Structure prediction request, 99 residues.
Amino acid sequence: MSAVAAPRIAPLFSLGTLCATPGALNALEENGQQPDEFVRRHVFGDWSEMCEEDQTTNAEAVTSRVRVFSSYALKDSQKIWVITEADRSVTTLLLPSEY
Prediction:
């Protein structure tokens, strides 16, 4: 029987100012999804849609103060990225094509 991890109570890092590109906002609206769904996953360390290596990099980024990068699938399978800058001043939701 495997152990179930307890849910996190506090965010792993500061998000800074939240921003979203027009493309990301449009894609979220088209899918009937809210930005906070993805921001919450990002800041609480739910990087399950990232490969193992990228998840490890994000875990290290939390303590080493480098950029934290997450990628999630919207309901229509379109990708949305969430990026928190190394200085934690801003977190941006964007589409890969807007990078």
